[in-house]
Design goal:
Layout lengths: L16 H6 L18 E9 L2 E4 L5 E3 L5 E3 L3 E4 L4 E6 L4 E4 L4 E8 L9 E14 L11 E4 L3 E5 L3 E6 L3 E8 L1 E6 L18 E4 L5 E6 L5 E5 L13 H20 L29 H4 L9 E5 L11 E3 H4 L3 E6 L3 E6 L16 E15 L2 E15 L4 E10 L3 E10 L5 E5 L3 E7 L5 E10 L2 E10 L3
Parallel strand pairs: 9-10, 18-19
Antiparallel strand pairs: 1-4, 1-6, 2-3, 2-5, 5-8, 6-7, 7-9, 8-9, 9-12, 10-11, 11-14, 12-13, 13-16, 14-15, 16-17, 18-21, 20-21, 22-23, 22-29, 23-24, 24-25, 26-27, 27-28, 28-29
Length: 465
């Protein structure tokens, strides 16, 4: 098989401003002026899988590429298999799911003058997840996300919205939102939540509910959330609130680590070695056994930010438990891979070349398949992970299946950096992971586009008995 030569894929960036600067943002350019389209970058494209295009404010069109800039006036379109993540200069982030169109109508961030901040987004149709950033932390009235029929203002940070032009639904993962029908007294050109009797508040404290609006009746209602929209559960107890700051920092760090380093930014997923790997069958483990609780004494443990896990994920534990004696490595919006130990010194190297070649077996895995708004559990049927610490390379092959796709394979390879972090990806797939400092454990998250849908999951690996 010929190695793919596409841009590598990174996780959704939500790093601090210093990380944004390191990623290429000029410290003197924080955003475009409000209103019109501008040639000043207001963010970057941190993930592209499948078909995704952009129409610029001047009418020009282009295929999206990981690492590209985001401008005011950009209209991002994803195809049936497209998935795009945007990260903005103020730590804000947007995830755009398949068959969706989202426009960046305004993005202005000035930390010295927060009263002048302005964020306005519009989703024409499809599904998007928005995590608001520093531009709206001080004054939440400076943010607006519009659909064709509704205006959404934030009183929190993390929500998912879905619309087809005649109906909209939204759920909240953290914080709260205010939803109002567009019309008299609620203009699409406004900022912040609209006021009035028709406005409805939905918060994460209210449980598994969604806010819904149908154009036919113009009424905003609360209803049980549909499973395709549900984010991870967040409980509003004191413990969760006390951990919020630490979890936010861990997520920012893990999202940044799950992106290719600068020297790998322009390189593709190198599958030369991975293509030669014979996938080891799961053996005595079946899918349920793989999706089993992790060893609390392991070096590597997946920690989730929600208190309760989704019904088909059993291999992660709460972040509070996973972080005991461990530090974050790579992660996504929902969780992080935490690792015991640390790099030997600030200038030193946490990995020894004397570890040589190590082959690890799959010990735990969890996967799901999302297509057309439906999410179902998927099976991981086998895998191989080869690490060469002398050459600082990895190669992996993973077999998975779902009732909608049949058997599918993922193959990836690339470099392991001095922190024990590895990333590889192309237009169809990506992996982001970490290895234990003794070379005996590893874990990675993965995504794979297949049949107009997306496989997602997490793995853990260890030395054989």
């Amino acid at each position: 098989m010929t190695p793919r030569r596409a841009s590598p894929v990174g996780a959704l960036g939500c790093a601090l401003l210093t990380l944004a600067a390191a990623a290429g943002f000029s410290p003197n350019v924080l955003a475009a002026a409000p209103g019109a389209a501008s040639a000043v970058s207001v963010g970057q494209i941190s993930l592209v899988i499948g078909d995704a295009r952009v129409t610029r404010g001047d009418g020009s069109q282009a295929q999206l590429r990981q690492g590209g800039d985001v401008f005011v006036g950009d209209k991002v379109r994803t195809g049936a298999n497209g998935h795009v993540h945007l990260r903005f200069v103020d730590r804000g982030a947007v995830s755009i799911r398949p068959d969706s169109v989202l426009e960046v109508q305004a993005y202005h961030y000035d930390p010295a003058r927060p009263q002048a901040n302005e964020v306005r987004l519009r989703i024409e149709h499809g599904t998007a997840r928005s995590i608001s950033g520093a531009a709206t932390e001080i004054d939440k009235s400076r943010f607006r996300l519009n659909t064709p029929i509704a205006a959404i203002g934030v009183r929190g940070t993390d929500f998912i919205v879905q619309t087809n032009g005649e109906q909209m639904r939204a759920v909240v993962a953290q914080g709260s939102i205010s939803v109002s029908p567009l019309g008299a007294g609620c203009s699409a050109a406004g900022l912040g939540p609209c006021q009035g009797e028709q406005a409805r508040i939905l918060s994460s404290e209210m449980g598994r509910l969604m806010v819904e609006l149908r154009q036919a009746d113009g009424m905003v209602r609360l209803a049980p959330a549909v499973s395709a929209l549900l984010p991870p559960l967040h409980f509003a107890d004191a413990t969760i609130r006390e951990r919020a700051a630490g979890e936010a920092a861990a997520r920012a760090s893990a999202l940044a680590a799950a992106q290719p380093s600068a020297d790998l930014h322009g390189r593709s997923n190198d599958t030369t070695v991975a293509d030669l790997l014979a996938i080891s069958p799961v053996g005595r483990f079946d899918a349920r056994a793989l999706n089993s609780k992790p060893d609390s004494n392991a070096q590597l443990v997946w920690g989730r930010y929600s208190f309760a896990s989704p019904g088909f994920d059993n291999i992660s534990v709460s972040y509070g438990n996973a972080s005991q004696g461990r530090q974050p490595t790579v992660g996504d919006l929902d969780g992080v891979l935490l690792r015991a130990g640390s790099v030997a010194t600030s200038q030193g190297d946490g990995l020894s070349a004397e570890l040589g070649r190590v082959d690890l077996r799959l010990t735990r895995a969890q996967a799901s398949y999302e297509s057309n708004g439906r999410v179902e559990p998927a099976s991981v049927d086998g895998g191989t992970l080869a690490l060469d610490f002398g050459k600082r390379t990895f190669a992996t092959a993973l077999a998975m299946s779902s009732s909608l796709t049949g058997r599918v394979e993922l193959r990836a390879g690339g470099q392991i950096d001095s922190r024990g972090i590895f990333n590889a990806g192309d237009a169809e797939q990506r992996v982001s992971g970490a290895v234990g400092f003794d070379g005996r454990e590893a874990g990675y998250l993965f995504e794979r586009v297949v049949g107009g849908g997306l496989f997602k999951g997490r793995t853990l690996w260890g030395k054989g008995p």
